[in-house]
Amino acid sequence: MTLRIAEIFGPTIQGEGALIGAPTVFVRAGGCDYRCAWCDSLHAVESRFRNEWAPMTAAEVWARVTALSGGRPLTVSLSGGNPAIQDFAPLIAMGKAEGYRFALETQGSVAQDWFAALDMLILSPKPPSSGEVVDWVRFDACVTAADTAAAVMKIVIFDEADYLWAREAAERHPDLPLYLQPGNHTPPPPEEEDATIDMDGVLARMEWLVERTLADGWFRPRILPQLHVLIWGNKRGV
Amino acid sequence: MTLRIAEIFGPTIQGEGALIGAPTVFVRAGGCDYRCAWCDSLHAVESRFRNEWAPMTAAEVWARVTALSGGRPLTVSLSGGNPAIQDFAPLIAMGKAEGYRFALETQGSVAQDWFAALDMLILSPKPPSSGEVVDWVRFDACVTAADTAAAVMKIVIFDEADYLWAREAAERHPDLPLYLQPGNHTPPPPEEEDATIDMDGVLARMEWLVERTLADGWFRPRILPQLHVLIWGNKRGV
């Protein structure tokens, strides 16, 4: 049985959310059940890139992670696409046996029993601007599946409608640590790895989100930009 | 009994370290037992600015924090200068009674029993480039005083000597969560609130620190820039 892997890279630092700044190796899974309008990882989503996804066994993925990290334990970030549509249980078991930690980011559309083996489950329900609609029954099943793994909620926000949606969505899970992240309107086109970004726009949206949230007196969420975009632009593989 | 307060501002987000992105009101204490070469808050350190520090009772400080936050609990960040050279116990007691949380950042040169009343104690031992020398007996006393408060270590790094020093300093407290932060070589002059910064230099130092640390296979620290500098430059009061 093989996994579809779009890319494995690192070590670098996690650029967003609860683990921001933490050294990590990324394992990006190919394939997704969503088609977000502003997806920044289309090369790991669209079927037309399927021939670029490597079929790899868990042992092969693990060998690559070990090589990249020099055998020194760190956090492995499972991303995508939606990594929850494949079976990462064998990979997680291999890594945990060596002292590595695992975080997985998913929109929360597919729950897996093996979420409980993670160190952190980052659930990122998609706001209206994505064009997708959250199935909260499935989302809640993901929270339940996390069990003793630390579950957090991260919501990407592009505009006022997203913000108002986030306020309500967050209320569904008042006990989850909450992260708001301004959207990047100029994600890299999948064919062009080093496209320039609208840095002024990225910064302006961050400023707006901070002001909007704090003016509301909504002090629950942490508000964090995509640090890797600020530092490295849209360059892939960092 | 009054406190010497250089400024109170917010709510904004914490720009660095363990609480990065968290909504906070800053209470910046005036006065410091250190004179770091690259201090970015000289207006709260040098005696020549003493006439700008307001003598305020804890109740007066608390009234201001309450007004700024609209009475909604958030994290209050006690900074400076070195806030540990004054008595913030009464202020912390007032705030905790209302559900607020308190974080304090200090170099770790003066321990106080009331550190135990904090939610988080951020200890920032100064590297060689500061021109100061850490007294580790005093530093360790701060760690002990934190008791059940979450203690973390944050080290600012300007150059290779600082980096090598940080590797050894971190080993003294292997159980503390550790944060590395690239130094900002163009901090705002105290007389000029909106001085421009060398953003390319700030970003270059962040890239260097990430590469240096990860190439070493040193995966313990989180590496985070001063987010407020990336977003707002050196503007004061955000």
TrEMBL record, chains A, B:
Keywords: 4Fe-4S, Iron, Iron-sulfur, Lyase, Magnesium, Metal-binding, Queuosine biosynthesis, S-adenosyl-L-methionine. Residues 19-234 form the Radical SAM core domain. It is an enzyme of class 4 (lyase). Substrate binds at residues 13-15, 28, 79. Its cofactor is [4Fe-4S] cluster; S-adenosyl-L-methionine; Mg(2+). Mg(2+) binds at residue 41. Binds 1 [4Fe-4S] cluster. The cluster is coordinated with 3 cysteines and an exchangeable S-adenosyl-L-methionine. InterPro entries: 7-CO-7-deazaguanine_synth-like, Aldolase_TIM, Deazaguanine_synth, rSAM, rSAM_sf. Its EC number is 4.3.99.3. Catalyzes the complex heterocyclic radical-mediated conversion of 6-carboxy-5,6,7,8-tetrahydropterin (CPH4) to 7-carboxy-7-deazaguanine (CDG), a step common to the biosynthetic pathways of all 7-deazapurine-containing compounds. HAMAP family: QueE. Homodimer. This is 7-carboxy-7-deazaguanine synthase. It comes from Albidovulum salinarum.
